[in-house]
Amino acid sequence: MPRPGSSRAVGNVFLAAIGVATLTAFQSANTQYGSRGFYKEGVRREPSTGAGNLYLLSALIDYDEPYANLPPNFRAGFYLPGGAGKDEPVYLTIREQSLAYYYWLDDVQPPGGWQTGRMNRFEWPTEKVVRHLNDRKEDGPLNLSKLAAAARLGRKTPGNIERVAPVALYHSRPPQSAEGYRFVFRPDRKMRLTLQLFREGAAAPLDTQRFPSVPAELPKEFRFTAKGWPDGWHRLTVTGYAEDGPVNVEVHFYHRRNLGP
């Protein structure tokens, strides 16, 4: 027969054990931004730095690889054309497209460096940070489809003239070809924009898109189909008007259709 008060004592011990376990789990899941070896990753509550009134958040190869359960790794791949990377550094940044958890990954320094004239691939485990970013009911857990990525050539921060290598985000099977691109910009105020995509050096655009009203402070995605494009450098121009004056941004990127080994 239990002694008086013994059930209460056992209950207190049980609750204390739960508290210790919760604290231990929280401490072991260090999601704060910091070094993870040859890259940095985590929650960083610092605003993005951009130049001008419109800046590039993401330059992605148009590719989706859905999943039901969180994969053990996420991966990023991009083609680095010959001549790039040796004379100019590559800055790969992966972050949320719309800020919810303030997830950030950058300062990637792969062993052996980035290689020109081929696909470069980078993978990182979801167990360290991504798996633990799931407590916002209105946003849901962080997943691959919510990430933006840009591999900037020669400069680390956004500018009015950009050189980038479009990035493919995936978890298991990389795309075998680049059939289109997704560019995401963030305007700091309401704008009227015209986007034109050219083969580098050509006068006639391959595509033109017009947007009479782009809202302020929200990421805006623009998609382009690359059917029939020749391999080589291309130029995306973004022009228009905002309340404080004209908008002029250029993004130069290399299109390679075949992304196989």
Provide the spatial order of strands within the biggest beta sheet.
1-2-6-5-8-9-16-15-12-13
> What coarse outline follows from CA principal-axis ratios?
globular
Distance between the termini: 72 Å
Tally the helices: 1
- SSE series: HEEEEEEEEEEEEEEEE
Number of strands: 16
Our Rg estimate from Cα atoms comes to: 22 Å
CATH architecture: Sandwich
The fraction of residues assigned to DSSP E strands is 35-45%
Number of domains: 1
Task: Give the gist of this structure.
With 261 residues, the protein is mainly beta. The protein has one helix and 16 strands. The strands form three sheets. Strands 1-2-6-5-8-9-16-15-12-13 form a ten-stranded mixed sheet, with no helix packed on it. Strands 3-11-14 form a three-stranded antiparallel sheet, with no helix packed on it. Strands 7-4-10 form a three-stranded antiparallel sheet, with no helix packed on it.
Keywords:
261 residues, 16 strands, mainly beta, single chain, three-stranded antiparallel β-sheet, Immunoglobulin-like, ten-stranded mixed β-sheet, 1 helix
Mind explaining what this structure looks like?
The protein is mainly beta. The protein has one domain: Sandwich (Immunoglobulin-like). 9% of the residues lie in helices and 42% in strands. The protein is built from 1 helix and 16 strands. The strands form 3 sheets. The chain has a 10-stranded mixed beta sheet with strand order 1-2-6-5-8-9-16-15-12-13, with no helix packed on it. Strands 3-11-14 form a 3-stranded antiparallel beta sheet, with no helix packed on it. Strand 15 (232-242) and strand 16 (245-255) form a beta hairpin. The longest helix is centred in the first third of the chain and has 23 residues, at 6-28. The N and C termini lie far apart (72 Å). Mean pLDDT is 88; it is low at 6-28.
